Amino acid sequence: MLPFHSNSNVLADQNTAQSPAGLSTHQSDTSSSHESPDSTCATCETEETDMDRGEAEQEAMGHFIPGPMLCCEAEKDKVPPSLETLYQTAQCSSTSDCLLLAAHVFLLETGFLAQGSDIRVGEMPSSWLALEYLCRLQYFHPSCEYRPVQMVGMLKGQTLIIKATMTTTGAVEFSQTLALKPDEYVTKEWAGGNAGLVYRDMQKLSRVFKDQLVYPLIARAREALGLPALFGLTVLPPELLLRIMRLLDVPSIRKLSKVCRHLHSVSQDNLLWKHFVYRDFRGGNRHTDIDWKEIYVYKRKYKGKLYDWFELFERLYQQRPNKNK
Description:
Low-confidence stretches: 1-35
Strand order of the largest sheet: 1-2-3-4-5
Shape: globular
């Protein structure tokens, strides 16, 4: 019995020794499973700390406000870096020179490339100041088959005349001329050290220069070269053109129809003139197989008013008292 008892004690001791080991193993697994939320929370706290630190740094540095990249984005005392660099290196001697620098930047913004191998980035061509003119610059444009373009600046009194000429096939030249008042866009501080203080109304100047000189020149040159239009009303489909024309008055429609054949064709749309009749005269004939443009013609409308007056006079004449009685 004693040996058995001792064996049972040994077995009991072994079971007792194994039991804590199994329990400790189970506890360790449980504890490891409960440690993942803690680590997740710690990670979240770290991320929140980093975010707070980033927001604090952002507040300390201030919000980033991008400067103007194009002349049409220029604000008070701020011009694009391209114009600022040119102004610092060109050494302008008059307000007209400052305005010609802006014209050069406008051409570069619209895709023109300056000719000459000696031109560096941020510098004007060495021969940009001509003897007989204030300025003479050579360019070419990729969308016009790299045809040569010449910009000339001439001063007549207090007005700067800028003329851009493009040579197309058969030595045919197309020119666009723009007259500008330098004092309207260049301040009295034109000899200062900051281009932002030199120029004013850059957004207006950019719009006037591009709309009245650059884009018409490109459009005319591409038409002469037999190339499709790149921009303008002629690029829009008829659906959008009709939407735009519906907002215009009839005199504007007549002027628009004289621009080109495409606009003339769209301006003859019968439903467009039906819209004008109902809009301007508050009604019209319900028939759809009539010429609404003819109805709108002022002579016919004027005759219709005369007929109304004749009817009124007729009624008044019939209602007048008879003196013979």
